[in-house]
Give the backbone structure.
Amino acid sequence: MIASVYPFPRPHSCGSLQHWVCPCCNFFVGSPCLVNLFMMDLCTVQSCLSLIEISFSPQENCNYSWSGIVKVWSMPQITKVATLKGHTERATDVVFSPADDCLATASADRTAKLWKPDGSLLMSFDGHLDRLARLAFHPSGKYLGTASFDKTWRLWDINTGKELLLQEGHSRSVYGVSFHPDGSLAASCGLDAYARVWDLRSGRLFFTLKGHVKPVLGVSFSPNGYLVATGSEDNFCRIWDLRKRQMLYSIPAHKSIISHVKFEPQEGYYLATSSYDTKAALWSARDYKPIKSLVGHESKVTSLDISGDGQKIVTVSLDRTIKIWSCRSSTQDNEMELD
């Protein structure tokens, strides 16, 4: 299915939004009016409003969001299932649970909310002192992480609504949060140009990722949990080794701001980056050399995601389109060809 976030009076340009689709319910996050949808090797969905975030579910569905009301659509028929109304200001992120039949939204009204896909409100998470940016479910599906412009990120129990952890440490707004595949660690990134890795068992700082010189907007763990990738407004993507606690690679990946980073979710064979230079790019996880540049958008690419099997990549842009790129993976050499 698809879910879409709609602008309140007009698009907001801060870029503090996010993406997702339901692993259990086949949902996609979409946009106000889907003018056309055609599936080839490259699928483009057009909308009358600018788009900012995108994501696949394990069922290979995608979603994108801008701001305001969230709408849920079924895929591939593009039939509206529900409209999620409850936030009093623009929505900034939406993500489906990896385990349960629910999704979460973040908003500039300083709250996160938990919903059933039919639009029923389950829970509201209150406590942040400034607008929320991105959010992420813990791999267990039992907890929700929220990043905020109040310089903190927080961990919530989705069953009780209780705040389990209030994590300080960033000197400026926290923009993103991500969880280690085994659930033991969390990574946060912020406008202070740092990413930080935290031990969830103790709540203590495990590792500070120093190297970027401008705000860090994206952070992603590799599937084996050994590496972290970060993307920044300094146009660099950096790869960090958690075992050695040091940076391994510094990639001059794009000519403008890197809006998102994501490892291929099965084995981490490649890394994908999206950028305001209108392109997305794929990088070999062997040596982080370029595999393919995804060219086709006419404006800033604000986010991307990769399907659970690694065979499809979806990108979203301020040109008001999303593009779904199909690819083939060779079982012999793990190289990927893009159709």
User: Anything to note?
Assistant: The CA atoms of residues 20 and 55 lie 4 Å apart. The chain has one domain: 2-338.
